Structures are given as C-alpha cells and as structure tokens.
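Sample 3 of the quickstart, ligand S-adenosylmethionine:
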Amino acid sequence: MAYLINPQHTIAVLQKFQFRFQKKYGQNFLIDAHVLDKIIQAAGIGPDDYVLEIGPGIGTMTQSLCEHAGRVAAVEIDKNLIPVLKETLAEYPNVTIINADILKLDLAGLLQRENGGRPVKVVANLPYYITTPIIMGLFEGPAPIDSITVMVQKEVAVRMQAPPGGKEYGALSLAVQYYAKPKIVANVPPNCFLPRPAVASAVIRLKRYEAPPVAVQDEKLMFAVIRASFNQRRKTLANGLANASNLPFTREQVQSAVRRLGVPADIRGEKLSLMQFAQLSDFLKEVLS
Ligand code: SAM
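Result:
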C-alpha cells in the first residue's frame, strides 16, 4: 500500500471507498509529510513503545506509527472508516483497529490486556470538538499514560502552555500543567489538511509528570477553586470565590485565605501560579475541617 501522506494517494483512497467526510466527527486528514515527521519525532517513538492513536481516519499517521512503534492501537469512531483502515493497514501486523468512541472506551482494560498495564504513548491528530474531554479524560482516568503528542487547534495549544498573568492563562492551562509539562513543537497551517479546517493548528507534546509538581491536600477542591476563579475573570479572586455557587466559603473565609497567601487583597485569579492555587485551596480546606 502506498503512503497516504501523499495527497494523491489520500484522494485515490477516498474515491475508491466513496468516503464522505462527516463534519460532526471533526474529520480533517493530514496531507503534509513534513508535519507527519515532526509529530513522530516529537512523540519519541521506538520499537519498545505501545502507541494509542485516537482517530486514525484513513490511516495516514497510523502507517508511520506502525513503522516506528512496537504496537499500535487505533481507535476510530466512524464505522465507515474501518474497511478503509483494514485495507490501508493490511501489511502491518502490529496494529489493532478498534471501532469505538474514545470517550467511552475502557482504555485501562485494553492496556492491561494488550500491554501488561505499562504506560502508553498517545499520538493523534485530534477531533477538535472534543480536545479537552479527551486530554483531561486521559490524565484523570486510570490508564497509565507516558505522554500525549497531539495536533490541536492552535489557540488551545497556546492556552495549555500559557504561564500565569496573560489572557491565555486559565483553568485549562492549570489542569494540563498539573499533570504534564507542555511543549508546542510545530505550528500547522490549514493547507496541511484535507479538507482545510477553518482554524490554525499546532502540535503539542504533553510529557506526564511522575508525580504532580505541587502537593495539594484536596485535588478536587483545588480544581473547583480554579474553575470558580476563572468563571468570573473580571472579578477579584476574593469576590469570584465568595460568589461561586460551587464553593461553600463566606467572604470572610476567602479574604482570610487570600491574606494568608501573602498576595494583594484585590488580586485576580489569572495572576496566581499553580503552586499558589494549591496553597490557597489548602488554606480553604482547613476551614472545612
Ligand atoms: N488521524 C487522521 C489524520 O491525521 O489524517 C484523522 C484525523 S481527524 C482530525 C480526527 C479523526 O478522529 C477522524 O477520523 C474522526 O472520525 C475521529 N473521531 C472523531 N471523534 C472520535 C471519537 N469520539 N472517538 C474516536 N475517534 C473519533
């Protein structure tokens, strides 16, 4: 089978199978060899690796993953793509094609059965409509994850990597940075895909920490505090937390915790680092106990 990263080969396969793109599945297939090489290189894949590919499409990236990795599991929701993948990946004995919704798949069970529970490297050109649930599901779920190297909307990649203080910094930055070290490895224009998406894209690598970079007594409370702080971005941190319907604290309790943190009383949430959010939520936790 010819390499699909060549646009002519992609078009030939689409025509042969009379494939119709489904917008609801975020189908924009990669047709740029340079970008594909960058993804494979950034993911750092070798023959000992077990790779999970989310949304293989017609198998363009899967072909390359199969050539570099020990084993590949490719999870595709669109049943119309399964016969295509069977053909385009026919010569690779190390791939398992799974017709499933990644958000519903028992990934921990799959990895236990197929890889003895060892960590997996996730590589994908993600369907953009579910980027955040996929990434947070991988980090928060029970499956062992080594790293996630993915194509996402550029704006989302920038938010994931954003440091405190700027307008891109928010709940997603903190959630991702609690679990992993992010690094944007390539910017990718719309003409690298078929059909062209309406937005610019970027490849980001998220290398999972062995342990989170900050210690916090109650992760759930910390993330509730983070969400509440950014839900009302234009308010001060203290006002945002005191008014939040998902938090039980009085204005006085919040003000006292902010004072203990040693920051100005009128500070906004976007100025706090992950470490400061962890401390703040530990101070608030004391009030509850
Ligand atoms: N990997 C291919 C490539 O780079 O050419 C296709 C990438 S395309 C942006 C996203 C793929 O994810 C599509 O094949 C789409 O059908 C699939 N997809 C969408 N939602 C999914 C879900 N919930 N679970 C698994 N695959 C999904």
